[in-house]
Amino acid sequence: MSSTPTKRWTSTRATNSPWRNWAGNVTSRPAREVTPASADELADAVRKAAADGLRVKTVGTGHSFTSIAATDGVLIRPDLLTGIRRIDREAMTVTVESGTPLKRLNVALAREGLSLTNMGDIMEQTVAGATSTGTHGTGRDSASIAAQIRELELVTADGQLLTCSEKENPEVFAAARIGLGALGVVTAITFAVEPVFLLTAREEPMTFDRVTSEFDALHSENEHFEFYWFPHTENCNTKRNNRSAGPAAPPGKVSSWVEDELLSNGVFQLACSLGRAVPPVIPPLAKVSSRALSARTYTDIPYKVFTSPRRVRFMEMEYALPREAAVPALREVKAMVERSPLKVSFPVEVRTAPADDIALSTASGRETAYIAVHLYKGTPHRAYFTAVERIMTAHGGRPHWGKVHTRDAAYLAEVYPRFGEFTALRDRLDPGRLFANDYLRRVLGD
């Protein structure tokens, strides 16, 4: 006796409705939206778009601050391409549909007694969106989420489904792990995983002078180190994450709510709103808020330590520098803020990553440190970000692909030794620029 499988139908609709990203700074009006329910249906949507002379872009949860996903053509929403396809415990890999939010992947892996090795500090993004833009956390030895990819599947401009790995189409694999949506539409990703483990997080306030003078030691002595400097103060908050034999000792519900919700989101939201309305109050508020978070230590499974809720909306710029340039560049940022009339309500974040072998990874071929600057949503950001960008580019900085920057292909070709390798592959896979948009024209050229 046979049964007929339930079919999920692709949703296609013409639309005049605008699409907006999470931060609200990017808006586009696609001609139509498609929500495919399988890789085959996605490939069919790509072929139809090409036949109609429409460009194609895929959007995840819109967490990029750039217009990398904007299009006036066909907008593909991967909402139905979710879930785990398979877990291979012998190879220690998990294959997941491209539209799966990292949050759902992390929870599902934990139920299976598995974990990614490293991850960023939020998990709202889809797996394809996060990897395609080079989302990363911090790590001495473990690199970005994309560096944990072992295989990926994508639909190319001719509507074909292409699988790539170190053994199959290796030249595509070398680039497509951080493909910027320029090489095709990712439909599935296979990640390396490991048995779930425990991390002990040690959060501790430190002075700016101490953190910067001890930065190399703090980096080398900890598996994962990051810190935040609060502009207009001499105060930083540090976080060290290291593997632990246990037992698990998560933060208590009350203390966790106070630190992660009340102080880091609720009170911070009020302070940012007040600072946007009355900028002169920002420096005294910074002095108070930088002292509000106390030292704490806790032990839990990885995603509960690496990630935290981010409910305050903001604009962000982040640059990747050679790791040895991090402290000099940060000191220049601090000096610039102190001598300027700028009022900066958000802390500056500093993280690290080892060198990797992905063509357009911000850590490609070099030990890396990241400096990220933020401003509350709705606050004029151009003067601050322009001044910071001038410092970052003087140190050979590479901008995060999903965060605000003004760099173009001419600059990026100078700071990425393998830039030409990527653009040559793009010429081969998408000669007609089906996946192009204004952002890709700027950063990759035509």
Number of helices: 14
Indicate the percent of residues in helices.
Answer: 25-40%
What kind of oligomer do you see? single chain
The overall average pLDDT, rounded, is 93
Largest sheet: 8 strands, antiparallel
**Uncertain residue segments:** 1-7
* Cα Rg: 22 Å
Classify the beta-strand content into a percent band: 15-25%
How far the N terminus sits from the C terminus, by CA atoms, comes to 56 Å
Shape: globular
Give the total of beta strands: 21
Structural class: alpha+beta
Strand order of the largest sheet: 17-14-16-15-19-20-18-21
Compact overview of the structure:
The protein has 446 residues and is of the alpha+beta class. It is 32% helix and 24% strand. The chain starts with 10 loop residues before the first strand and ends with a helix.
Please give a handful of descriptors for the protein shown.
single chain, 446 residues, alpha+beta, eight-stranded antiparallel beta sheet, 14 helices, 32% helix, globular, disordered N terminus
Q: How would you describe this structure to a colleague?
A:
The protein has helices spanning 39-51, 102-111, 127-132, 170-176, 208-213, 215-221, 253-277, 282-292, 302-306, 326-339, 382-394, 409-415, 419-429, 438-444, and strands at 11-14, 19-20, 27-28, 32-35, 56-58, 74-76, 84-88, 93-97, 114-115, 149-155, 161-165, 185-192, 194-195, 198-207, 224-229, 235-244, 296-300, 314-322, 348-353, 368-376, 398-399. It is of the alpha+beta class and 446 residues long. It has an 8-stranded antiparallel sheet with strand order 17-14-16-15-19-20-18-21, sandwiched between helices. A 5-stranded antiparallel sheet has the order 7-8-12-10-11. α10 runs antiparallel to α11 (382-394). It is globular and about 60 Å long. The termini are far apart.
